[in-house]
Backbone:
């Protein structure tokens, strides 16, 4: 049994097509068919059911498929560990982050790329729920977000700094000079909200769940930079974490004198799997750059 045979079988099983699998793997259809046939002969089973119209996975093939995927993943993990020994000269780091958290990573990413130009960095922006799914499937190495209130059994999470939701206004706004505000102080002003699914919006919704106030919501945006630009150039106010706007010019974060404003910065990794050296090194760089004056509390 060869790894390439497993790879070919998995691809055909997923696509139900020899021709499409061959196209995506950039090999000939006869090669992929021959290799899978050899695998079946070695195992003395029929993994695929072939006819002139389509390819189906047999019952034995369906039982074999998850183990084939795990074997291939284990082999890739071995290769990753070898690359780690090579002083991070080669490799890939896949980082997932929520839109609200992503503004905190700019300096860290730039510094990491300067230190390790051989490491390809892929960054994915998604909701925290999507990130946890990607982590569980090991499609990303690390997720960074504000702490989720949902428990994910296959994921371990670590708080790296404390933060809180704040009112964000432009520097000349009537509330900008206040040291703190209550929701009652805000309801008379028009507001722009982070879109549903963003962590700052979830924190805002938790904070206002038990209240009976109505807010003058004029806009919802799922992009932090656009939201801040709107606030900076208009009379609208919004709600984001204090850290998000630390170095954004023209806006001010005002503390909210309310309950349930905590937004704890966290990193998340899948339990009981190999940790890339690049993952650990990225967290170290995050701690050392600390561009927003955040006290990193715990690392891998």
Residues:
């Amino acid at each position: 049994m060869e790894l390439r045979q497993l790879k070919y079988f998995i691809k055909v099983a997923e696509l139900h097509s020899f021709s499409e699998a061959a196209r995506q793997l950039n090999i000939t259809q006869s090669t992929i068919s021959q290799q899978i046939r050899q695998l079946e002969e070695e195992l003395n089973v029929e993994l695929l059911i072939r006819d002139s119209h389509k390819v189906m996975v047999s019952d034995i093939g369906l039982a074999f498929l998850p183990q084939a995927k795990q074997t291939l993943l284990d082999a890739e993990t071995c290769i990753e560990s070898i690359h780690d020994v090579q002083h991070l000269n080669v490799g890939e780091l896949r980082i997932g982050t929520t839109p609200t958290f992503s503004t905190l990573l700019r300096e860290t990413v730039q510094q990491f790329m300067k230190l390790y130009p051989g490491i390809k960095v892929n960054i994915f922006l998604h909701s925290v729920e999507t990130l946890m799914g990607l982590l569980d499937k090991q499609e990303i190495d690390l997720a960074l977000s504000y702490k989720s209130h949902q428990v994910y059994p296959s994921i371990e999470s670590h708080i790296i700094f404390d933060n809180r939701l704040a009112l964000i206004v432009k520097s000349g706004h009537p509330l900008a000079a206040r040291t703190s505000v209550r929701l009652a102080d805000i309801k008379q002003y028009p507001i722009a909200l982070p879109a549903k699914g963003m962590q700052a919006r979830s924190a805002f919704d938790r904070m206002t769940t038990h209240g009976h106030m109505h807010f003058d919501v004029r806009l919802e945006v799922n992009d932090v930079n656009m939201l801040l630009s709107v606030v900076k150039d208009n009379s609208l106010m919004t709600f984001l974490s204090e850290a998000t706007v630390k170095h954004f010019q023209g806006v001010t974060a005002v503390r909210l004198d309310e309950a349930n404003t905590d937004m704890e910065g966290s990193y998340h990794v899948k339990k009981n799997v190999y940790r890339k050296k690049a993952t650990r090194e990225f967290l170290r760089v995050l701690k050392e750059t600390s561009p927003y004056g955040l006290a990193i509390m715990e690392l891998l």
Remarks:
- Residues 86-162+264-289 form a domain with the D-Maltodextrin-Binding Protein; domain 2 fold (CATH 3.40.190.10).
- The CA atoms of residues 144 and 267 lie 5 Å apart.
- The longest helix spans residues 59-85.
